[in-house]
Design brief:
The protein has 84 residues and is an all-alpha fold. Helices cover 52% and strands 0% of the residues. It has 4 helices and no strands.
């Protein structure tokens, strides 16, 4: 799976929570005010289920989940692929 495929899947999931807001890949998801702590849990579950990776306790750093760019890089690292 390449970086663009990862990004597309992440965009599709995250966009469900941003109706009426065109979230940019570098935009801070948590600073927008559209999401809450329940979203964070759903996002971790989505990443694990969609990409077949395990999010370890040490991975639960907000910087790994802050934006589509950060998420894509995180998933790429977990999959062993270079981040774009």
């Amino acid at each position: 799976m390449n970086d663009e495929q990862i990004r597309q899947r992440l965009r599709e999931f995250v966009s469900r929570f941003f109706r009426g807001h065109d979230l940019q890949d570098g935009e801070d998801i948590f600073a927008t005010g559209y999401v809450n702590s329940m979203f964070a849990m759903q996002l971790v579950q989505f990443v694990e289920g969609e990409f077949g990776v395990t999010v370890e306790s040490e991975d639960l750093d907000l910087d790994n989940f802050r934006s589509i760019d950060a998420l894509s890089a995180f998933v790429g690292r977990k999959l062993g692929a270079p981040a774009a």
